[in-house]
Automatic annotation (TrEMBL):
It comes from Streptosporangium longisporum. This is TIGR03085 family metal-binding protein. InterPro entries: CHP03085, DinB/YfiT-like, Maleyloyr_isom. It comes from the Bacteria.
C-alpha cells in the first residue's frame, strides 16, 4: 500500500470514529466539512479552483455545502475511503499529489483532538517530506515576516523567508513536523523554535503555506 493510500485509509477510519462534528485544525471546519473538501477536490474539478483562487471561493463553498447535503457524512467518508477519484485515478498520480494532502489533513484531525501524540513516520516518507520542504520553501515561507532557518533532525538545513529581513528565527524538528509548520500549522507542529521573542511571535502568527 502506498503512503497516500495509507494516509487516506487512516483518515477515513478517524472520520468514522469521531463523527461529523469533531474539530479540525482547518479554521471553521468540522470533520464533515473536511470530508466534503476532500471529495470536492478529487471529484469536482469544476469547483476545485476556489481552493486556491479567492475569486472562485464562493462557488467552491456552495458546491462543498451541496455535497454535504446530498451525500451526507457517511457517504462522503465512503468516497474518501474508496478514492482516489476523478483524474487522480491516473496511475502514479495519487502518490504524487495526495501523499502530502492526506498526511496534512490526517494530522489536522488528529491534532485538533484533546489527546494526541506525534507519529513515527517511515524513513522514506520523512525523506520525501524533507525534499518537498527544501523544494517548496520559497513558496511556503513567502509570507513569513522573518528569515527562517529550518534544521532537520537527522541532518539538513533549509532557509526561507525574506532575504532582507532584519529578524531571524530557527526551527528544528523532524521532516514531517517541519512540513506541517511550513503548511501553516505552526502551533501544532512538534518543533523547537528559537529567536527573539518578537520575531518568534510574528512567525508563529504568519499565514504560511501554499
Amino acid at each position: 500500500m502506498s503512503h497516500a493510500s495509507s494516509e487516506r485509509a487512516a483518515l477515513a477510519d478517524l472520520f468514522t470514529r469521531l463523527g461529523p462534528d469533531a474539530p479540525t485544525l482547518c479554521e471553521g471546519w468540522t470533520t464533515f466539512d473536511l470530508a466534503a473538501h476532500l471529495v470536492l477536490r478529487e471529484r469536482r474539478p469544476d469547483a476545485a479552483g476556489g481552493i486556491l483562487l479567492k475569486p472562485l471561493a464562493g462557488h467552491t463553498a456552495r458546491v462543498q455545502e451541496a455535497l454535504k447535503s446530498t451525500k451526507g457524512y457517511t457517504g462522503l467518508v465512503d468516497l474518501v475511503r474508496s478514492g482516489p477519484g476523478g483524474l487522480y485515478r491516473v496511475p502514479g498520480l495519487d502518490g504524487v499529489v495526495n501523499t502530502t494532502e492526506y498526511f496534512v489533513h490526517h494530522e489536522d484531525v488528529r491534532r485538533a483532538q484533546r489527546v494526541w501524540e506525534p507519529r513515527e513516520l517511515p524513513g522514506d516518507l520523512e525523506e520525501r517530506f524533507w525534499k518537498q520542504v527544501r523544494a517548496g520553501i520559497r513558496v511556503f515561507l513567502r509570507r513569513s515576516p522573518v528569515r527562517v532557518i529550518l534544521h532537520r533532525i537527522g541532518g539538513g538545513v533549509a532557509i526561507g523567508g525574506p532575504r532582507d529581513a532584519t529578524q531571524q528565527v530557527e526551527v528544528t524538528g523532524r521532516a514531517g513536523e517541519l512540513l506541517l509548520f511550513c503548511f501553516g500549522r505552526q502551533s501544532h507542529a512538534k518543533v523547537d523554535v528559537s529567536g527573539d521573542d518578537e520575531a518568534v511571535a510574528r512567525l508563529m502568527d504568519a499565514p504560511l503555506g501554499v
